[in-house]
Amino acid sequence: MSQESPLGEQVVYYGKRYIVLSDWDGTITTQDSNDYLTDNFGMGREKRVVLNQRVRNNEDNFRDAFRKMLESIVETGREGGKVTHTFDFCRDAAANDIKVDDTFKGFYEFCEGNDIPVVIVSSGMEPIIRAVLSKRLASLDGIQIISNKVKTSEDGSWEIQYRDPESGFGHDKSKAIAPYRAMEPAPIIFFFGDGVSDLSAAQGATCLFVKYKPNGENDLMEYCRKNKIKHRLFESFREAQDLMKLIIFAETEEEQRGIIAREWPEVA
Q1: What is the pLDDT of residues 104-158, one digit of tens each?
Q2: Rounded to an integer, what distance in angstroms lies between the CA atom of residue 252 and that of residue 229?
Q3: Cβ-contact 116, 248 below 8 angstroms
Q4: Residues with active-site annotation
Q5: Residue 159 CB: number of other CB atoms within 10 A?
């Protein structure tokens, strides 16, 4: 018998002046858990990078490319008809090896203290996110997560259960932003991301923060530059927090607009 985890409804925060929506893997975490699993237990880094490049160049969509990566983990773990790379195995491996940006907890507390909701919007799988949170940041276990789920089978195999299977993104993150853009007045939307899974959300934020990766896998940065999307690079949430302070503590809306225009200039 297969088991599917339920897809929860998004909780929308009304009446807020500001909202933070953030990618999880590679943005809040220091390493993408799905990349880690694919590189170590699936097709390997080289093939994974090629798939990401195809997505960035509009030669493939994220939904199908990501499914191929995850399927490679299951297939590489088949031994004599038995699946050794079960979902429990992958969840535990990620929980043990994936770490969280050590400035995120302080950033979250800053937002909480200033009535700014923080929502994780991920194209990964919620059980893995929860496992890493439980191990690294148990105090944040109640944070809202909008993500994908997992379907497991008795033989040990498993597959991702996409939130938006009809979308080429699998999980269309722009849908998490849409309710806030439609509000009157709309809050200032801060979105944090790093990779190809964030492309659908890139143009919907008021202020787009793009995590800079020293390893060179800067897919969202390259996409924004190519498509002239305003963005601000950051390496730690403390750095982003300092920028947010300028905006939320500005005395007038005109001053806020000036700060945003200065810190998120047009892309040449």
Answers
A1: 999 999 999 999 999 999 999 999 999 999 999 988 888 999 999 999 999 999 9
A2: 26
A3: yes
A4: 23, 25
A5: 16
DSSP calls for 160-224: EE-SSTTSTTSS-THHHHHHHHTSSSPPEEEEEE-SGGGTTTTTT-SEEEEE--TTS--HHHHHH
Beta strands in 51-132 (DSSP E): 78-79, 82-83, 118-125
Backbone angles phi, psi at 208, to 5 degrees: -100, 120
pLDDT digits (tens, 9 = 90+) for 194-244: 988 898 888 899 999 999 988 777 889 998 999 999 999 999 999 999 999
- With tokens 């031994």, the residue in question is 79
How is residue 262 written in tokens? 């200065």
- Residue 85 DSSP one-character state: S
In terms of Cβ atoms closer than 10 Å to its own Cβ (0-12, 13-18, 19+), residue 199 is buried
pLDDT at 142: 85
- Rounded Cα distance between 130 and 136, Å, is 10
* Beta-sheet pairing, 78-79 with 158-161: unpaired
Please give the Cα distance from 49 to 178 (Å, whole number). Answer: 30
Tens of pLDDT, residue by residue over 150-183, are 999 999 999 999 999 999 999 999 999 999 999 9
Token pair 């040449």 in the structure block, residue:
268
| C-alpha closest to that of 240 among 110, 100, 51 | 110
* E strands present in the chain: 3-4, 18-22, 78-79, 82-83, 118-125, 144-152, 158-161, 188-193, 207-211, 232-234
Helix (H) or strand (E) holding 88: helix 87-97
* CA 146 remoteness from chain centre: 9
Q: Distance between CA atoms of 154 and 84, rounded to whole angstroms?
A: 12
